[in-house]
Write a structure and sequence with these properties.
Number of helices: 2
Strand order of the largest sheet: 1-3-4-5-6-7-8-9
Shape: globular
Strand content: over 45%
Helix content: 10-25%
Radius of gyration: 22 Å
Distance between the termini: 37 Å
CATH class: Mainly Beta
Length: 194
């Protein structure tokens, strides 16, 4: 019984301690996020009256994966500037293989509450390159989001984020061909503060 009480007391102290040192001026943060859309999918059509041609056209397999490493520096308490690079790949029966590389300078503000969970807002803008099998596009991208950092220790957090992003690009060969995408997504990641 005494051991359980001791363990409970230690855990309570760890998770109820004011957590402010991670986001103070002069600290660095290294993060890695993976998009929630990272997945494998397999669509199948069933039924008695479906022809083999229709079934073949509608049965698709594919996958999508995205990863975003980042580095930031806290210029003042709770405000960081940095950069992130995103690499994503999508491939499947329904489309040609698409790869996307994004480099984006970012700024993030952590709301100064002395809790284990720290809400934050982030904004960034930068360069995007989207490559398909037949052509490549490059241009401007921006993103903004809100999230929460769940500090599991004094210098490690698990981050959840909802983000809106847009890419607007064109080919270098022919400016008449343009590529645009926008959307809302979510991600989960891990951050280390030092």
């Amino acid at each position: 019984m005494k051991q359980r009480l001791f363990v409970f007391t230690v855990l309570f102290c760890l998770f109820s301690t004011a957590i402010t040192a991670q986001t103070e001026k002069g600290k660095f943060s290294i993060s890695g996020r993976s998009s929630i859309e990272g997945a494998y999918f397999s669509n199948r059509v069933y039924g008695d009256n479906i022809s083999a041609t229709v079934r073949e056209a509608m049965d698709v397999d594919g996958y999508s994966f995205s990863i975003t490493p980042s580095l930031s520096y806290f210029v003042i308490d709770n405000l960081s500037i940095g950069g992130q690079a995103t690499f994503s790949i999508t491939d499947g029966d329904y489309q040609s293989k698409t790869t996307e590389f994004i480099f984006m300078p970012t700024v993030a503000y952590y709301i100064p509450i002395e809790k284990v969970v720290r809400p934050f807002v982030a904004l960034g803008a930068g360069y995007a390159n989207v490559s398909m099998e037949s052509m490549s596009f490059s241009g401007f991208t921006w993103a903004g989001g809100v999230g929460a950092a769940f500090f599991v220790s004094n210098n490690i957090s698990i981050d959840l984020m909802a983000e809106y992003a847009e890419v607007s690009s064109k080919t270098s060969d022919n400016s008449n061909y343009k590529y645009s995408t926008k959307g809302l997504g979510g991600s989960i990641g891990l951050s280390v503060y030092f």
